[in-house]
Amino acid sequence: MLHVELVLQGLINGSMYAVIAVGLTLVYGLLRILHVAHAGLFTLGAYITVLITNATGSLPLAVLAATLVVGVAGMLVYRLLYEPLLDRPPYVALIASIGLFICMEESYRIVFGPYGNSFDTMQLTQRITIGPIGMAAADAAMLVGAVVLLTGLGLLMKRTRFGIAWRATVTDPAMARSFGIDTIKVRYVNFFIASALAAAAGALVAVLNNLVEPTMGSVPSYKSLAIIVLGGLGNVGGTLAAALLLGVIEAYGTIYAGAFLDRDAIAFVFLIAVLMVRPQGLFAAR
């Protein structure tokens, strides 16, 4: 029974990591940019969710608003920060992204205060029991929400014209343009989707923890970077698998190694161990 609970908790945590990291992978796959500021958009989504829920009493409306607003904010980040740097070495965009992330964290601290915000009324406090397995409704919402979002993304990428255009642009932008694909539009839509995923993840974490604070994006950003390396840079399927695997490993590590290893350090210990054996990541093509 302990192992079932550990695997379930690992999948819940891993699903949250997956929603964040897949968005990060979409950006890297298309532009070869490590979008560190993605975590700042994650935090923005959480703040918007709490503020609108407290103002209207409607959590679904708040989550929808957060995804739309942060999606547009992501497009603005691309237009104002990354697009002028596309012809520069990749490290320039990375430094700019880190700078933006720091500015976003400090802005949240100034605007919302350093101690965090919470829902006026606790959300999803019920407990769900399926046979011998029980979980909080917030945990179930995290798992179900992640499955819905990632399934929708998979269908979008495999069954729609945008998905075809995205894959073509990733493979060969010049060839894609020669076939009439608007690669500029693809980049903007790509940033909207990635940022909306970050916002949705932030909303789910806000509900799960009933707390939003300025620095809440820091640890997920570090873990997401570890996950996309483990999954193979630019590999969406590999990122998803690596996120779920890391969630389960963290759950077991907290029980069996928690006395001498912090939970948040487990991701990096695992990353180092994997890269020593397989430098290209677990799921990258050889």
Quick recap:
Helix 9 (218-231) packs across helix 10 (236-256). Strands 1-2 form a two-stranded antiparallel ribbon. It is mostly helical and 286 residues long.
- Structural class designation: mainly alpha
N- to C-terminal distance: 38 Å
What is the multimeric organization of the chains shown?
Answer: single chain
Record field, number of beta strands: 2
The main sheet comes to: 2 strands, antiparallel
Pick out the low-confidence regions.
Answer: none
Rounded to an integer, what's the Rg over CA atoms? 19 Å
Percent of residues in helices: over 70%
CATH hierarchy: architecture:
Orthogonal Bundle
User: Can you write the helix and strand succession as a string?
Assistant: HHHHEEHHHHHHH
3D shape: globular
How much β-strand is present in the residues? under 5%
Strand line-up of the largest beta sheet: 1-2
- Helix segment tally: 11
Whole-number total of structural domains:
1
CATH topology: ABC transporter involved in vitamin B12 uptake, BtuC
Q: Tell me the name of the CATH class.
A: Mainly Alpha
Q: What is the arithmetic mean of pLDDT?
A: 88
Write the layout of secondary structure elements.
Blueprint: H1 2-31, H2 38-56, H3 59-82, H4 90-112, E1 127-130, E2 133-136, H5 137-159, H6 161-171, H7 173-178, H8 183-209, H9 218-231, H10 236-256, H11 263-277
Antiparallel strand pairs: 1-2
Helix pairs in contact: 1-5, 1-8, 1-9, 1-10, 2-3, 2-4, 2-8, 3-8, 5-6, 5-8, 6-8, 9-10, 9-11, 10-11
